[in-house]
Batch of 4 targets.
Target 1
Amino acid sequence: MNSNRQIPIGRAGFIRIAMTRRALSICALVLLLLLPGHAGYGRDRLTGDVQSVKMVGFTVADIDREADFFVKVLQFERVSEFRAVGDEYDKLQGVFNINMRVVHLKLGEQIVELTQYVSPPAGRSIPVPSYSNDAWFQHMAIVVADMDAAYKVLQDNNVRQISAYPITIPPSNAGAAGIKAIKFHDPEGHALELIYFPPGKGDARWQRPSNKLFLGVDHTAMTVASTEKSVAFYRDVLGFDVGGVTLNTGTTQEVLDGLFNDTCLVSAMMPASAPPHVELLEYKTPPGGRPLPADSKSNDLWHWQTTVVTKDIAPLAERLRKAGVQFITPDVVTIPQRAQDQLGFRKAVMVRDPSGHAIRLIEE
């Protein structure tokens, strides 16, 4: 069967597929993840389950340049800056002899965390070129009130684009019609996205009246090797819910990702309180995405860390160990009293998801 069809699935994605055997197997996986009765679906809440995504952060080489970009171009507010030094941070980040500069930026209700390593110096740069199907890829989606006006801001500031232009999901997909998006790079090559939700689409808070152009952070999205393994981690171990699954393909997706022959299975993982949420991106085509280096460290510039909140970190850490999850932090770290207010938490542990992305679990 090779009839091209446009099929709406999930919360806000779009799907256009040729109904080949491979496509049918993907659709079967979509249904398996969404249908009640599948193992882990709608399970009872467990002690330590994740409540929310507190912040999204990444490592930078020049924190002042990066912070200026977010403040002057994307209209974030610089809310705090502090140093982190000591054995606790060595253990937490998995890097020896740490001295970090940390800047917290705020947009709407969401926080972005920039981290510069003073000691040891910043590690390896993001490879150039870098593509969405490379295993280290992660981006952050920033909601805008007017895509045309926001895109002009990018152009006026000569921002490097991943997408050639903003895409619009067509009317043929009623569930997501009118959503607009464009991907681009910050000065150091970290991937970002602007996204516009028309009335009736996206989280309700993006529809509140506002005089701001840039509104907040909707989600962070990361490339994964296996949707099944990743959903099992985020849902069955951490306590996220599957919010929706879409298969994105065709010219619109190719332009958005800057990737020819682009077919991407997208799964939205929703914490109890959102936004932001987490999106899992499994690229079915094109082949050839490069693996995450096995010796990746937190001071490498491709390092992102997604900080999630639990009310009780000890049982969650134990659950992660029993599940065979890779720990960056040897064990739960207690943050010194003097730094708890700065960081916004008192206990933490950092692990890697099945594809190697860093997740920092905290107890406030």
Target 2
Amino acid sequence: MKNICVVGVGYVGIITAACFADLGNKVVALDIDQQKINELNKGSMPIYEPGLKELIDRNVKANRISFTSSYAEGLKDAEFVFIAVGTPSGVDGEADLQYVAAAARSIADHISDGMIIINKSTVPVGTGDWVSDIIREQNPKAANFSVVSCPEFLREGSAIGDFMEPHRIVVGSLDPEAAEKVAQLHLPLRAPIVVTDLRTAEMIKYASNAFLATKISFINEIANICEDLGADVMEVSNGMGFDARIGPSFLNPGIGYGGSCFPKDVKALAYMAEKEGRHPRLLNSTMEVNNERRQMAVNQVKVLLGSEELAGKTIGLLGLSFKPNTDDMRDAPSVTIANLLLAEGAIVKAYDPIAMEEAAKLLPSVEMAESPYQLAEGCDALMVNTEWNEFRQLDLNRIREAMNSPRLYDGRNIYDPTLMKELGFAYRGVGRGYNGS
């Protein structure tokens, strides 16, 4: 059993804390937001993630995890301190490191001999060195300590499984002994461990996310061409995915990526490249293709309605969160789409199984429905924005009968075009060629 402190109880922090506790360690989750700590102590979760509450409840009962807003309390006896605070995008796309800096200064005030500080947040290349400098500047008498990079690779909606069964663990440090200790901490996960230097570890995270985002933009570009040439992108994607050099993951065409990672990380990597005098053409194109998807979805609704005018039309949004199994609305395509529709005078309604409370804060002019069937009532068109499993099993006859006109734009290709036509819908998917017209 190791003593661990996790600084930050946002998405990455709370998952990291809960999972390390479940591996038998003594974990203190620390956040300066007292309200979040109070809610956690009451058993209320700061995020929605399948299985998280059960995991935390079990480890609270076993006395393996606790929550505090005090650095003095959180860092007492801590051998490993994970920094898992937010790094939002700045004005020019750069990562905003104010929360990392604040955490580093507070750690410096309570640092103990031999402590290992681990950057879990996604941070620009060179941040590990910068954190070391901040700690030494804040506390010139700081005891012997080490800084390690151990980037997270968690997917919202499946984060616990991703933590417990990772594809790899990346550990970067200039201190081989510290790197070995962090590697040992992860040994129970029985995953390949890549040990490298600080900057390379930081770069692995950005390069990984940028590549996955590029795959999404690539298949969306192919979807556009399929639309024009009469091919079905779903069959194209399936055929490509059998090639072991390509693989099927992240080849799902749709309305583009969103969330807290891909948009922010691709921007930040492009910013780093430009700052060094590079011209990251592929990264910029990835973002350009992705940004176009949202307006393109609105344009497809116009095609379905047979009108360039949306004023007075009622459009229903099936799904709001950027992906299923999460309530995360950060850079969700639905927000942009809803605002584009509203700007053109449409009446916008929406339903999401989990995210409506969060969405309502961002979209006060959107009416939230209690069910997909209530959503469909009086709609001139529906748009699928999030591929929640429950949408795949809807009573589509009931949906059709509730609508003013049975028109559906499937932004995630969850329905079969032929079946939708048989059910009487005017249907368009993404890149489904003439079959979906």
Target 3
Amino acid sequence: MAYVAGDLIKDDEFNAFVANSSSPFGYNHFATVGATVYGLGQAIIPSVVAGDNTITASQWNTLLAGIDNVANHTNDSMTARGQVTAGDTVAIKAAVAADLATLAASVAAGSPNATAIAASSALQTVTTSAEGWDSTATQEVSATFANGNNMRYFFNAGGKIRITVGIVAAATSDKDTAYANLGTAIGNFDINSLTSTRSGSGETLTTDGLANGFQDLGTGYTVLIKLTSDNTGYTGNHIVISAKTTGGAGNSGDATVLTIKMVATDGAADTQYTDGNLSSIAVGAKDTPKMVTTLYTVAPTTAQGLNPVYTVSATASVSNTVS
């Protein structure tokens, strides 16, 4: 699909397709630096000088190639285009504007249909130092980006910050099983641009903060999920996952660090067995297990058109405490 020399479109129309910063948005607004929910960090397409009424084939093809690259990543269907012939001008203008609007909406939604994303191996793993904690086990992990723009580009392109929650059991027990079941029900817990999701199911969803994503976070922790055990005898046990960013709300553009906190709480009304118990039950049968929080990224790749792509520059284990 190529426009050839001699095909005409007005310079102000071309500049609108390239650079409009209000609806209908131009390519540069959602695909290059952008702001808030817009921006993918792609190369800026230059506007033309006012009064230069002829738009070259090269300028058109640069814009259309950019549209195709973003569309391939977001998995949006674009209008099929061939060479321009007499009478096509109005139809082409409408089609380009409509396609740009479709792509802007996908980017603003965090590219939810993107498949050119890949999960990392474990980047941080935090394990409670011992089983048998009495009240809570708290673990925090963080992901840092080189700057606020890179962080936005990551999430706008469909990137996710992921944690899983598991246990290391000292002995097989009903309490261990309750926490293991909670971790399975959480599954892959992903913080996306506008929402959070869990791949698991079941247990009792006590607090549903899944409508919050990166763009909704501020400097104080936002609870994303509280999942409570539905196992008999352990309905007081639960796991809470919260997240925060530095530099104000995620969409302010200056946040560079996202921190996730996992708090496991033992609210079961049970008693520990002693060394002298006569029931032939292991002393640690009622102990809480070691909790394990693991951090991953699910990062955009160049496989379907975006280049460059952005991901974290560093990760860290922030805290690991019990009470």
Target 4
Amino acid sequence: MKWLLAGASGFLGTALRVRLASEGHDVVRFVRRKPATATEFQWDPAAGEVDSAAFDGVDTVVNLGGVGVASGLWTESRREAILSSRIETTGTMARALAALPGAKPTLIQASGIARYGTSSEDAAYTEASPAAGDFLAQTTVHWEAAAQPAEAAGVRTVFLRTSPVLDRTGGPFVPMKLVWSLGLGATLGDGRQRMPLISLDDWLGVVQWSATNGHAAGAYNLTIPTPTTNAEFTDALAHALNRPRLIKAPAVVLKKALGELSGQLLGDVWVVPERLQADGYRFYYPDVDSTIGAALSRT
């Protein structure tokens, strides 16, 4: 199988590229700079420009483009960068796919679990639940909508509504592990808020499952099927690292330090992967203990 990746230099993109190459797949990727190898093709999402030669022989396109949401306070300029980087990359990719003649590759498009907001009701959020009204939730609405040209042209499109992906090689688990290894880990707020998460192996597994299962289409929640709370997560991590959990990080302190971003840590996000399980995906690590164990043991 031949894959085209966009956003392949980040944590998830790098892990996917390594996994695919190790299994013998052909992998090419879009880059914004001048291509350095025959497997790189230039694109400029802000200008809507792509090198259409990148799509030659490609079976699956994975678009992971978008600036990080946790790397700074959400100033107006930061909000604009978060939103525009997602809309531009997705829209440019979708239009390029729609313009291809003949049979078209599958599009696996990144999205986020933040779509459902940070205030849960009496039942878990599923893929059919409506979007919340806050900034990140509405960002995912516009993000997914930007893929409409591809969907309208008959491209099989899969949206990965991804929760934090845990692995020792990158992402949010790296600073978590460091803090806990130093004995400084803490429960956030009262710890009762549910927090979605998924192992890197399962994230990679869902991507490959989406590519090879022709019935897979639409949105899927990528999170463990057995929900966990922040307190349960911190207890599991403390046990895995043989470190104590003695302190709490008060909500008021987090709100002052992180501003609006603190809502993503303190809010209750009760989400389940209903469609993913119904459509046949089987998790390698379905709960918090196995997910943390996998994150610590992967090489």
